[in-house]
Amino acid sequence: MGSKNKLKRFKENETFSNVYQPKRDKLLDGAFPIKGNWNLEVFKNNNPIVLELGCGKGEYTLALAERYPDKNFIGIDIKGARFWRGAKTALEKDIYNAAFLRIQIELIENCFASNEVDEIWITFPDPQIKYKRTKHRLTNLQFLNRYKNILKPGGLVHLKTDSEFMHGYTLGLLHGLNKEIIYSNHDIYTNYGSPEVVTAVQTFYEQQYLENDKPITYLQFKLN
Fold this sequence. Notes:
alpha/beta, Rossmann fold, eight-stranded mixed beta sheet, 36% helix, 21% strand, globular
């Protein structure tokens, strides 16, 4: 994507009513007024809040929002030029239960209050296989603790990935922490039985993985 196109999308994002782009220093100062008030200020209802971390173009967030109108979905990514497409489509199609938040995911506790979130989806994250990159792995212990602090008691976390490494790493970590694993599948399209939502919604890249016979794995677990 050219730099001009990126700048155009950044400018357009600023005009979208469903996009939130708090400054890092404001978050660190605790000056984000929507924290604890997403239902009241943004969605104007009391429906469950579901996050998608690393939402990319926002296609999964939108698909879930359309499929489950009784839940509120927030796609989170640091790359606003990517989720521009999802935000624009949501406005064009009047999908009022979808919003987008541009932040680094390590600042998630600065954007959501304790017990504010019902579910978290982590879809096809970079597995960060190199040892020096483990601090960026979205299911490492530090990130799991962040999620635990914003999830309601019994809140669900979903990990859907094409990386056997990421699946195995997360499964082993959860076992070591004695966390409740609700469901685990190493190949959701061959070993049937996954929750319907897992196979019903596919990203563009997921479809490519399937065309190349690459297994898609899924984990559902609780952190408290």
